[in-house]
Amino acid sequence: MNVKFENVSKVQGLLSVSLEKADYQENVDKALKEAKKKAQMPGFRPGMVPMSLIQKMYGKSVKADEINRILQEKVFSYIKENKIDMLGEPLPNDEKEAGMNIDDDSMTFWFDIALAPQFEVNIGKDDAITYYEIKVTDEMIDNQVKAYTRQYGEYRQVDAYADGDVVKGLLVELDSDGSPKENGIVVEGATVMPQFIKDEAEKTLFNGAVKGGKVVFNPAKAYQGNEIEISSLLNRKKEEVAGVNSDFSLEIQDITRFVEAELNQELFDHVFGSGAVDSESSFRAKVGESVAAGFVPDSDYRFLMDARSYLMEKTGKLEFADDLLKRIMRANRRDDDKDNIDETFDRSKEELTWHLIQEKLVEKYSIKVEDDDVKAMAREATRAQFAQYGMMNLPDDLLENYSKEMLKKRETVDGLVNRAIGAKLTAALKNDVKLKIKKVSVDEFNKLFETSSTDNK
After folding, report:
1. Among 267, 315, 309, 271, CA closest to 290
2. What is the pTM of this model?
């Protein structure tokens, strides 16, 4: 067996593997003997089929399988041992292999290999990249404080109705004279939220309502004939409430009101932990810090986008074996997606360029992702999900359980690994380059994504 490699150009190589009969025949013979033991053919006892027939039936396929196994092993081991910086995978060179026959004892197989372009990434304190810090406004703090007071609020029973309360009681359909309708609709424990009544005249009927009192209203008018809302109130199917235009009497048994939490030590401890803050001013300051911290991932994401643009421009256009890369892409895509390669090729090369630059940076900064990094990223992702709902102070066991569930899915783990690499790369770049800090509003920050241009001037 003989394996050779030659450079066709700076970005393309040609690898050949020459095989002699001695390289594969022993394993082929073993495989045929195994096939003989299992072969069943009319007129022969099991295992007694003549080898000549076995050879005729299975010889070519067994030989092809063994040669393919040897090629896979030798090609990739040669690439690894000789540290060939390959893009994609080796592709057979059909032109070179034209005329080759599987019946030949000696064969040479040829593979085209796309080589990664050679380049350096130089970056340091002489390089300045804009870092956008989002301003935290009083309105943001007010909104977050409001979210906390609502989150830790509670429902209380009250005696008199006010806007926003939930009213519950016995709902009885009335006849035209105001008396309970015979065989009419009766709903025990009916729940009404007057604030969502669409007809203003019907809504005002609940003004001044008290526990133990009654309110007479018309559901058909109140909900302007919306059968879904009417059927939900009357606990009936939609077709059963069609045409129901009666007044109903609601005997009020309960009035429930949601009361927001007060800005006191109990709330402070709920949000940030016992004793972390001890006054409203320090609470607001801490809320401001948490809001600012919540913007950091967005700022880091934008920074990495800008760093990417900056580094790609500084690195310049890289040379690739375009035709071979397109072949590799076609070999790895579905049939219905192969025709788009020419249209998307420039974008694919751009992504490949950044991937290669990123690999250089990972090596430069000695970035490694360990299991603990992935677990930490899972916990951070879990914490961020709960933070969207204002839950900042999660118990450790809850955080641990949710993050463990995330790690059970392979695709999720792959995403977390990429996020961990991105986070470490962002931190390394922020520490290495000169940051041009620019404070912007949320609207200004969002507008940065409306254009692909990057302001690093």
Report:
1. 271
2. 0.76
Model confidence at 457, pLDDT cuts 50, 70, 90, reads very low
Percent helix, strand, coil in the chain, to 5, is 50, 20, 30
Phi first, then psi, for residue 242 (nearest 5°) are -65, 125
CATH topology of domain 2-115: Alpha-Beta Plaits (3.30.70)
DSSP 135: P
Domain residue ranges in the chain: 2-115, 128-144+268-450, 154-259
Residue with tokens 């879904």: 228
The model's pLDDT over 241-268, given as tens digits with 9 standing for 90+, comes to 988 999 999 999 999 999 999 999 999 9
> Are 132 and 438 in contact, with CB atoms under 8 Å apart?
yes
State percent of the chain over pLDDT 70. Answer: 96
pLDDT at site 42: 83
Q: What is the DSSP letter of 318?
A: P
Handedness of CA 238, 244, 245, 251 (dihedral sign): negative
| Contacts of 87-92 spanning 24+ positions with Cβ under 8 A | 87/114, 87/115, 87/116, 87/320, 87/325, 87/328, 87/352, 88/114, 88/325, 88/328, 88/329, 88/332, 89/328, 89/331, 89/332, 90/15, 91/324, 91/327, 91/328, 91/331
Decide: 325 and 112 in contact? Cβ < 8 Å.
no
Closest CA to 248 of 157, 366, 167: 167
Q: What CATH architecture is 154-259?
A: Roll (3.10)
Tokens 């030590």 found at: 265
Annotate 393-410 with b (16+ C-beta within 10 A) or e (fewer): eeeeeebeebbeebeeee
The phi, psi pair for 210, rounded to 5°, reads -130, 160
The position carrying tokens 């939220």 is 193
* Residue position matching structure tokens 């059970």: 408
Check if the beta carbon of residue 159 is closer than 8 Å to that of residue 208: no
Q: Which helix (H) or strand (E) holds 5?
A: strand 2-9
Q: What is the DSSP string of 253-292?
A: EEEEEEEPPPSSHHHHHHHH-TTS--SHHHHHHHHHHHHH
* Each residue's pLDDT tens digit, 74-102: 999 999 999 999 999 999 998 988 878 88
**For residue 264, which phi and psi values (nearest 5 degrees)?**
-140, -175
Q: Give me the half-sphere count of Cα atoms (radius 13 Å) on the Cβ side of residue 395.
A: 3
390 residue type, one letter: G
Order across the sheet with 86-92: list the strands.
2-9, 12-19, 107-115, 86-92
Confirm if 28 and 63 have CB atoms less than 8 A apart: yes
- Asked if 16 and 4 count as a contact pair (C-beta separation under 8 A), the reply is yes
